[in-house]
Amino acid sequence: MPVVEAHILEGYAPEEKARLTTALTDAIRLVIPAGDDAITVMLHEMAVENYARGGQLRSPSPALPDPIQIVHGFLAAMEQRDLGSAKAMLAPEFRMIFPGHTPMATLGELVDWAKSRYRFVKKTITATEAFHKDGSTIVYVTGTLAGEWPDGAAFSGIRFIDRFAIKGGKLIAQDVWNDIAEVRGT
User: What is the pLDDT of residues 21-76, one digit of tens each?
Assistant: First the structure.
């Protein structure tokens, strides 16, 4: 029965502490074969006036935004064609790769490229997973696509996987896999 104790400075919101305890529980399960109910996580909060590093009193860093909310917000903005809101979520170095195309750096490139593929597309998300790897947060989104082909015919039930990389609360990469070409070719 693993017991994890973490010391943090006071000032984090309850939902941020809940995200932390969930992440610690998940990290333990990557190594130790224990069920969730067998893993105990305890957060010990330290008053800011009782903590110093390098002889200086320190304040807690703000919590990072929830990466799943960032990705869901981006996808919702794109679906609504709110390109301004979507662009605000991108880091300057953002790159995206869609099936059958070279990497793109702007949302305008994506919109222009997509015109010949479909009139519009909507995503039904069935699962979202997030984890930290090599200095970035990685978020996978899976589900199905529905929309209209350029001729106005409807389509639905097309599988997709999106992989996002996030740094500093901004999207730095999106890799997309889907079965549009296979379905369209039938």
Answer: 999 999 999 899 988 889 999 999 999 899 899 999 888 889 989 999 999 999 99
pTM, entire model: 0.86
Cβ neighbors of 46 (< 8 A, separation 6 or more) are 7, 8, 9, 10
According to the 3-state scheme, what is the secondary structure of 120-161? EEEEEEEEEEEEEECCEEEEEEEEEEEEECCCCCEEEEEEEE
Neighbours of 171 (CB within 10 A): 22
Of the candidates 91, 75, 107, the one whose C-alpha atom is nearest the C-alpha of residue 169 is: 91
Check residue 12 and report its DSSP letter. -
CA distance 25 to 13: 19
As a whole number of angstroms, the distance between CA 154 and CA 85 comes to 27
| CB of 141 closer than 8 Å to CB of 71 | yes
- What are 65's two structure tokens? 């935004």
Which SS3 state, helix, strand or coil, does residue 3 take?
A: strand
Contact 121, 130 (CB under 8 A): no
Which of helix, strand or coil describes residue 47? Answer: coil
